[in-house]
Amino acid sequence: MSRRALNVLELWPTVGYLHEFIGCQTKQSLVYDFQEPYRWLVDMTVISCLESRQFGKKDFYRMDNYVLRLRPEAVRKLIDALRVKFNSSVRYARKFHGWDTLIRLKAQELTNCILGRRDELDFGEPSSHLERTDSVAIRNLILSLTAAEAKRLGIGRSALWYLQRRAQNRSPFRIYEKVRRELHPS
Questions:
Q1: Domain residues for 9?
Q2: 80 pLDDT band (50/70/90 cuts)?
Q3: What is the C-alpha separation between 60 and 30, in angstroms, rounded?
């Protein structure tokens, strides 16, 4: 996606700012530079796939050098998950865009900056949002809640039972906004 966005704007992909071409590496230094601000999208998608058990042991195979690789079927699952992630919307410049569109917009901003049509370039906007509802701190808080404390917070017995059961398990779980507000009244 980064390479395509840069190629459309006719930027020279071998001239990078952070990565440099070193013999055995790719000659696409600018592509690697440009994808860095968005790497977290791929990382979070992979983590999400692993946590939701979309991948199992059968989806991996080990190379002779003990490197794990994804089988072709698992690669297709990952690509589908990435497609969903990159098509999800993000607010930027008072509009909602898919991440794929945003990357093209940022490539255009980079081009304008290089050509002197723009004074600055901010890859920090839009910022990444990585807050999880099932963090270790939240899990510990849920596990330490007594029935009386939960009742005082407005959390019913069945909701407390569900939350504590899910918090004991290592699998990801969702905490609804109302309950999250009760746990963190800020």
A1: 2-114
A2: very high
A3: 31
